[in-house]
Amino acid sequence: MAEEPVTARFGRWRLVEETARGGWGAVHRAEDAAGDPTAIKILAPRDPADLPEGRERFRREEDLLRRYPHPHLVRLLDAGETEGTPFLVLEWLPGPDLLSRVAGAGPLTLDDALRVGRDAAAVLAHLHEGGVVHRDLKPSNFSFDASAALKLLDLGLAADPAALKTLTARGTFIGTVGFAAPEVAAGETAGPESDIYGLGVVLYWCLTGRPPFTGRTERTVLRRQARDPILPPSELRPRIPSEFNALICAMLEINPTRRPDGMRRVESRLAKITPNQISGPSRPRAGRGARPATPSPAAWPGATNPHAREGARAPDGTPAPGPDDPLPPQSQTIIRKGFRRRPAEPAP
């Protein structure tokens, strides 16, 4: 007869299994004394020298979860220390998270993508109204509870204005390459408009199964993000509602001032979209301040894009550059600064 495994315990909780591990610690599925499932986030930084900063991040996440409860924000059940190790006890979410859901079943239906967008915009608007910026929006930071309600996770990098001034030195990149806004990748302080960009990338990914910019290396992704126009999601997935397509493209503007004016505005626009508002021609009309819909190199041969077409060419008929072609001289500062700021344009 096989021996039963030794039951790991953490304080008064029984640890069932480790479900995630990152640079700052691990998340475990656990059970309380009554056998009810919970999630326990335990501080365990890879580098012991990061322990003081990790303690501050845990303290701040606990504070933000207590101060800004919302139906679409993961609930904090308890927090404290056991034998000097900080922990957070959170509601258990059976999921799957957005990353696993799309990876396993493919892009979301239009109904589901719109629901994700509306619910995510609602909780982010709630945080923004309290002065809190999430700073790390990506598919793995959204999951679902047992009733299939969307939940925003991981406020470990979130910060209010006071914390933003002290937690991250200027020039430090905080976030995830491919999902962080260009100005954040350049080391500038994140603001609500940076979360708008991040949510735009998440919605693009929900509809197409890929972020708008891809590449073999982070360096390639960053320079594409800085120099290439967005390939509208309707180019990869026909019959996206035209307003949904236009909103995502607006959220992904490289210039923060050209993005929608606040997350409540994003929520309002999403609420008015229905799946039967099918796109016409997916390329936006040219006009003052309009961005050309030239395909991104991510859609050209050699890129990590499953939708790439053989023999793709740039609009002028020349072969499309490969993902590792050298940048033109005027764009070399992208690599050093992370992005090239577009000059402000007069309003139409």
List the helices and strands and how they pair.
Elements: E1 8-10, E2 13-21, E3 25-31, E4 37-43, H1 51-67, E5 76-82, E6 85-91, H2 98-105, H3 110-129, E7 142-144, E8 150-152, H4 161-167, H5 182-185, H6 192-208, H7 218-227, H8 233-236, H9 242-251, H10 263-271, H11 333-337
Antiparallel strand pairs: 1-2, 2-3, 3-4, 4-6, 5-6, 7-8
Helix pairs in contact: 3-6, 3-10, 6-9
Polypeptide structure, described:
The chain contains eleven helices and eight strands. The longest helix has 20 residues, at 110-129. 32% of the residues lie in helices and 13% in strands. The N and C termini lie far apart (77 Å). A hairpin with a 5-residue loop joins strand 3 and strand 4 (37-43). It has helices spanning 51-67, 98-105, 110-129, 161-167, 182-185, 192-208, 218-227, 233-236, 242-251, 263-271, 333-337; strands spanning 8-10, 13-21, 25-31, 37-43, 76-82, 85-91, 142-144, 150-152. By secondary structure, it is α+β, with helices and mostly antiparallel strands. The model is unreliable at 1-6 and 280-348 (pLDDT under 50). It folds into two domains: 11-91, Phosphorylase Kinase, domain 1 (2-Layer Sandwich), CATH 3.30.200; 98-337, Transferase(Phosphotransferase), domain 1 (Orthogonal Bundle), CATH 1.10.510.
